[in-house]
Write a structure and sequence with these properties.
5-stranded antiparallel sheet, two-stranded antiparallel sheet
Length: about 375
């Protein structure tokens, strides 16, 4: 139950997110809230009444938020699209207010997202492209410490890594309008932003994401080849490619000689020269086959990286774009109801006016002792 502002440091040591359900809180208060029996028996009904009132109030917030997002939606019809930067700023103001009600705190991307930390945790070496992006912001709630198992050497060696993990993460990305994108960035934007138009705003909602994995959620994330894999591909290429490469120049010389004689140059084509030409051609085919095989190995490894990155995103994705707004307003409503119920209980239990610090302490003590929430 602590105040949270954008000025907070990105290191989240404690947040105001309450993971328990409203019914669980009401039942715990009724059973262990130290209230008079006549009050305790009516507390679940009071909780439902509070929830109903706040649900009615949340409806207007949801409609306003959807209205401001509609012209920024990637799927918006052409006639309803808005390309001016002020449209996103209007939506962003309302969106930040909704995030605050849902007890989300912002994570500074520059200090929190580390390519090295991501590689240490996931084994993926990722680079990000910011082509066409006006702004990207990360918000999270439910911070906790979790032990994650990392496998090395094809699973023969396992390592336990302690990682700060968030129950939920929301990413909002504002893209530049076409006139704002540099010519050099337009090709990169078209290549990496499939399905996203310029001037749109992309919203993603994820669950159970470690801080080190935030880099994987960047819309321009692209896995790159690890040094160990580069060595594994390059070593056979060098060992097997050098002898073949030494035959290329003689092979080409023989082939051109035979072609020159065939098209009218002086001299005659001997059987031995034809045999040498065929052998040279076979050598070139072998070179082409070798190059193709190495390229397929590289592509196979690259696809493995892409799949691992896709799995990280796909299996943790909860909602997208306008669907996030429904979830976010619902989350804010849910958190507000629980905070009001707990605050009301704390005041009833105290039986006198108390300070905010004392109220926070009573509520946090109750959540820790009665619902085992840290």
């Amino acid at each position: 139950m602590t105040d949270q502002t954008e000025a907070e440091t990105p290191e989240i040591t404690r947040d105001a997110f309450i993971p328990a359900r409203k019914a669980e809180i009401a039942a715990a208060i009724q059973a262990h809230g130290d209230l008079a029996p006549e009050i305790a028996s009516r507390f679940p009904d009071l909780s439902r009444l509070i929830a109903a009132v706040m649900h009615y109030e949340a409806y207007d917030a949801l409609e306003n938020l959807k209205s401001s997002y509609a012209p920024l939606d990637p799927d918006a019809p052409a006639a309803k699209r808005e390309t001016d930067a002020s449209a996103f700023e209007t939506f962003e103001t309302q969106f930040l207010d909704a995030l605050k009600h849902g007890n989300f705190v912002e994570i500074d991307a520059e200090s929190a997202i580390s390519a090295k930390a991501n590689k240490d945790l996931t084994g993926l070496s990722i680079k990000c492209s910011s082509a066409g992006i006006r702004r990207i912001r990360f918000f999270a709630r439910g911070a906790r410490t979790q032990m994650i198992e990392r496998k090395h050497w094809w699973g023969l060696r396992k390592e336990q890594i302690e990682a700060e993990t968030f129950s939920e993460v929301i990413v909002v990305v504002a893209f530049k309008s076409l006139s704002e994108i540099d010519r050099a960035d337009r090709r990169a934007f078209a290549k990496t932003r499939h399905g996203v138009r310029p001037a749109a705003a992309l919203i993603k909602h994820f669950r159970n994401v470690a801080r080190a994995e935030l880099l994987s959620l960047h819309p321009g994330a692209k896995p790159t080849m690890r040094t160990s894999d580069q060595v594994m591909l390059a070593a056979p290429a060098l060992i097997g490619g050098v002898p073949i490469a030494m035959q290329i120049v003689p092979a080409i010389t023989v082939i051109f000689t035979v072609l020159a004689l065939f098209f009218g140059a002086r001299g005659a084509i001997e059987n031995s020269e034809l045999q040498r030409a065929l052998a040279a051609l076979s050598g070139l085919i072998a070179v082409g086959t070798f190059v193709m095989r190495q390229w397929m190995k590289y592509e196979r490894q690259n696809l493995k990286y892409q799949k691992k990155l896709a799995d990280t995103v796909y299996f943790r994705n909860m909602a997208n774009n306008s669907g996030v707004l429904d979830a976010l307003i619902g989350a804010g409503e849910d958190q507000n109801v629980k905070e009001v119920i707990l605050a009301y209980w704390a005041l009833l239990q105290a039986g006198k006016p108390i300070t905010k610090a004392a109220l926070d302490l009573d509520v946090e003590t109750f959540l820790t002792t009665k619902l085992s929430l840290n």
